[in-house]
């Protein structure tokens, strides 16, 4: 979320960064500051192996990203040559699929190693892919996948330019020129009070006209399937795009305002309801689908004209509010008044629940999530259906006045009781006793589908426990004064992945206590830390000398 001069407490930029990423593995964020005197000074977090900051701030601006909803690849349905299923027809001409043998060393259960070979086939559109039952390679058709990011070699250069940007204009200009962002939205503020939203990642140039002429009606879900038998169905090429076959920046969503812009992994449409972003290719952004519950929660908190400070944005995360509860919990409690004795345990839990996903929340949260999951496949259960003319307030309400909906809720409640009992969660358990980090530290937050801004995804992990595997990661709040940036935040899963490290769970415990720390940025702030020490790595012998 990016708040501009018209809404921020001090009339300067104010940013909340709350990316939801894995808590372990190769997509785990790490905090760092990069300083090259006179050239670069940037603080934030990055994914392993990247020599640049992905999300962070410098003296002039702060930025964050959210995973976008744009398509970054398309499928091509190949018409195979009736005489040979390893050849395909393009404009009536038979062409061979390119073949490549890939050999991989595989370790068996007994520890022995062997080589396993596979034949990989490709058309001029890309590699042939298979998905049994959905994308089958038979005697008639096969499917190739064309990935727009396969030719995107500009990623590191893109984030280096963002790291060095001294204004929103500089940041925006680099994104529009390089087009190196692979699959995320960008939100940013600067010290002057501007707020910027960009949905400008690498997207195949397939506009509505090309989609209408070439899309395959047998496409699967959100996947775009184009006709691979006609060269006219190739992605369009624009001279102003950074690479052939992708949309140029001028045809992608961009919005700069002085009040706010926001995104919670929804299309660009409602970045700010006062200025809807519409009219784009469906591969870029859509305006005909319901907003996610987190976006609706954010827009509710942003409504009005009141000035917003750092504490206001922090509470959006640390309040752990379940927004969906405000839409349907009263209806569930109304249903409970006439429900049978076999589901009274669920009803009692719902009545006692505080409507949050914090450490003290009862298992009413678990039952609420189970009920919502069961009803999600029945859009008719909403009392007020989604209306594109009112995306901030629809759908809403649970139609418990309908017998069919009451039946669905009753069945879902019985199933939830069984699920909770089978999982070993005690009836009096608190959420902090259920959802935990790997070391047992309780973790607040809940499912993003419920509208929890502090989104957490956890999986069953032993009797009555759930292990957090992804969610809030690098949490950052940045404001600006005449002296430069002021930041607070933390890394929710802590800096070290080594269990024995003193920094393996320190920030996780602070996160559980909702205690964000001041993030030092200037040299003076860094050296003021009582734990400060300097490590000099000798270029001569690679020895390490520690100086207190």
Provide structural commentary:
It is globular, with a radius of gyration of 26 Å. Helix 1 packs antiparallel against helix 2 (168-178), helix 7 (344-352) crosses helix 8 and helix 8 crosses helix 9. The chain is built from twelve helices and 29 strands. The strands form six sheets. Strands 8, 9, 10, 11, 12, 13, 14 and 17 form an eight-stranded mixed sheet that branches. A seven-stranded antiparallel sheet has the order 4-5-6-7-15-16-18, with no helix packed on it. The chain has three domains: 1-69 and 153-219 and 230-319 and 453-548, Glutamine Phosphoribosylpyrophosphate, subunit 1, domain 1; 73-149, Aminohydrolase, N-terminal nucleophile (Ntn) domain, beta-sheet knob region (Penicillin G acylase, beta-roll domain, Roll), CATH 2.30.120; 320-444, Aminohydrolase, alpha-helical knob region (Penicillin amidase (Acylase) alpha subunit, N-terminal domain), CATH 1.10.1400. The longest helix has 21 residues, at 403-423. Residues 544-548 have low confidence and may be disordered. The protein is 22% helix and 28% strand. Strand 8 and strand 9 form a beta hairpin. It has 548 residues and is an alpha+beta fold.
């Amino acid at each position: 979320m990016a708040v501009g001069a018209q809404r921020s407490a001090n009339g300067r930029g104010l940013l909340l960064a709350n990316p939801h990423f894995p808590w372990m593995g190769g997509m785990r964020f790490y905090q760092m500051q990069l300083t090259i005197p006179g050239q670069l000074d940037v603080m934030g977090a990055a994914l392993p192996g990247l020599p640049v900051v992905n999300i962070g701030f410098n003296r002039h601006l702060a930025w964050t990203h959210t995973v976008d909803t744009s398509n970054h690849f398309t499928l091509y349905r190949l018409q195979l040559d009736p005489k040979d299923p390893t050849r395909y027809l393009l404009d009536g001409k038979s062409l061979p699929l390119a073949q490549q043998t890939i050999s991989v060393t595989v370790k068996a259960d007994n520890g022995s190693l062997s080589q396993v070979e596979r034949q990989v086939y490709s058309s001029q559109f890309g590699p042939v892919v298979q998905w049994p039952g959905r994308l089958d390679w038979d005697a008639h058709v096969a499917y190739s996948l064309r990935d727009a990011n396969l030719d995107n070699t500009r990623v590191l250069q893109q984030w280096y330019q963002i790291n060095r940007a001294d204004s929103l204009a500089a940041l925006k200009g680099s994104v529009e020129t390089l087009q190196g962002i692979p699959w995320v939205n960008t939100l940013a503020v600067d010290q002057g009070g501007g707020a910027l939203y960009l949905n400008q990642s690498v997207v195949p140039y397939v506009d509505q006209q090309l989609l209408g002429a070439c899309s395959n009606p047998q496409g699967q879900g959100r996947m775009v399937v184009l006709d691979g038998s006609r060269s006219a169905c190739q992605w369009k090429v624009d001279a102003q795009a950074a690479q052939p076959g992708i949309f140029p920046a001028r045809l992608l969503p961009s919005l700069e305002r002085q009040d706010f812009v926001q995104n919670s992994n929804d299309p660009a449409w409602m970045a700010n309801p006062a200025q809807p972003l519409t009219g784009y290719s469906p591969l870029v952004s859509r305006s005909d689908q319901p907003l996610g519950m987190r976006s609706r929660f954010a827009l509710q908190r942003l409504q009005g004209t009141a000035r917003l400070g750092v504490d206001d944005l922090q509470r959006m995360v640390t309040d752990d509010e379940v927004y969906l509860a405000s839409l349907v919990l009263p209806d569930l409690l109304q249903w409970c008044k006439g429900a049978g004795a076999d589901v009274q345990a669920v009803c009692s839990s719902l009545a006692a629940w505080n409507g949050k996903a914090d450490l003290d929340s009862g298992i009413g949260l678990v039952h609420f999530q189970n009920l919502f999951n069961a009803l999600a496949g029945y859009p008719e259960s909403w009392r007020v259906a989604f209306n594109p003319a009112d995306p901030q307030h629809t759908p809403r309400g649970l139609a418990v006045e309908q017998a069919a909906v009451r039946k669905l809720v009753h069945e879902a409640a019985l199933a939830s009781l069984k699920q909770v009992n089978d999982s070993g969660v005690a009836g009096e358990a608190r959420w902090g006793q259920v959802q935990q980090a790997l070391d047992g530290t309780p973790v607040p937050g809940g499912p993003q589908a419920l509208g929890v801004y502090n989104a957490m995804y956890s999986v069953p992990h032993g009797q009555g426990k759930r292990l957090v595997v992804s969610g809030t990661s690098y949490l950052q709040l940045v404001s600006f004064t005449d002296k430069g940036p002021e930041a607070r935040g933390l890394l929710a899963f802590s800096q070290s992945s080594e269990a024995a490290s003193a920094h393996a769970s320190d920030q996780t415990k602070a996160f559980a206590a909702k205690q964000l720390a001041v993030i030092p940025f200037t040299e003076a702030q860094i050296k003021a830390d009582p734990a400060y020490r300097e490590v000099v790595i000798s270029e001569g012998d690679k020895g390490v000398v520690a100086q207190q």
